[in-house]
Here is the input.
Amino acid sequence: MTLFLLISAIILIACVIGSKLSTRFGVPTLVFFIGLGMLFGSDGLFKIHFEDYSLAEKICSAALIFIMFYGGFGTKWKTARPIAKQAVLLSTFGVFITAALTGIFCHLVLGLPPLEGLLIGAVLSSTDAASVFSILRSQKLNLKYSTAPMLEIESGSNDPCAYMLTIILLTSIGSSLNFFDISYLIFAQFAYGIIIGVVLAFIASWILKNVQFGENGFDSIFLVAIALAAYALPSLVDGNGYLSTYIAGIILGNQNIPKKKNLVNFFDAFNGMMQMLIFFLLGLLVFPSKLPYYFVPALFIAIFLTFIARPITMAILLSPFKAPLNQQLIMSWAGLRGAASIVFAIVAVVSPNYADDSIFSIVFCVVLLSLLFQGALLPSASKHLNMIDEHENVLKTFNDYTDENNIHFTCLELNNSHPWINKQIRDIGSIPGTLIAAILRKGATITPKGDTFLRDGDTLIICAKTYQGNDNITLNEINIDSNNEFISKKLRDIDIKKDSLVVLIQRNGVDIIPDGDTILEEKDTLVVFSQKNLFHLA
Here is the structure.
């Protein structure tokens, strides 16, 4: 047991370090997790023998619940609403078209039986939300035409349809289904999945708004339970648990519930853990020595998916909305395959109606090729297709971009030169409209009163209303690219109007409060407070 825990700790640390390195080198993080699993597996250095498909299916399916829930919870509906119609079409009809085209290809070119070809098409018909989200965030791909939220909604919501299609085909392989049976399965999957997801979401929202949890973090535990219930309840009545989970997540994520940003941050970390678990376990499950046998058919399928099936699907479903050609092409390239496809392949392997592990190896190779080439080349493809919008911010697509409320807290540290030291709060003449909410002193929290003396080393927590006016004042974000003339210059030396002020510099994920001596660097993002029509920055 002790050795197992030590190995687990080493694996988790390696995953964390690897995610940082893979991002730096432009390789999707999930590829590293798979590689680490293969390194520890039967054909790797550490020779951990694991080929229990049934156990892997249970673990990965459970982890996929939280990935689906977070996919909905982290989506900002306000941003996604304008393209929701296109995204829903892609996540439903797009799945069916992709599966059908891939199935026909597998039958005609690779010589597979029709139902088996369609099964491979169904398993590979979903795109991977975790991979897409990770690349969009880490590379800050600010795409034109609201493409980022479209990708987010599509990749987050097409897994349930792919799962439904997989289950129908697996059932069809083992027995002859008539039209009525198939119709009922589709009805049950959608109806029960949607109804239960919606009902659970609003019940959970009411509880979060009206019930005070006794301990910090219990609201996060409560939502974990809701995610599990959202999957389990519809599954008991032949409903689509993944659809229910996603719908519950997207409704809850867009409700005005307390501590929402904390909840998003919790599920962000928890989701990362689930991704590590899934992809490491899948890497552990695969035998690299067997992959060359399946590589050629997997390569053909990957090429067909990327360059034929996916573009045809985009053209059919997006052309009626007059989507530009470059948007259709980047949507095609961004159709990464990932965890859900491999999990659905394992579902097929453990099904008594199929029980052929060759589908797992084929799908694994396709996913690996997709992550390595499509994922790694997505940023450069976006640039070459002229899809980068310098005035957009992809992070606004996600619910953790900002915490929308009317109150803002900031801190002020008092050092030995501050004029407030040794004065009572009533005597300092603070700015009207602000309030000292708390004093942090030597590890203790003090509730301030009028006669409270301020001391050297105190940290004041100051509360004020968030500015929401429209009176000719704005915040601008300026990205410093490689051609900007301000690189290596001090902030005081750049051409900025006197009515504007650089209040923040975002650099490598760190927020910097600048002063006149701050030297600007490539890839800096300047947050500029200014009056409209007076702001000027070349």
Remarks:
- The beta strands are 407-413, 434-441, 444-446, 459-465, 473-479, 501-507, 510-512, 525-531.
- The chain has a mean pLDDT of 80.
- The chain is about 55% helix and 10% strand.
- Residues 18 and 38 are 14 Å apart (CA to CA).
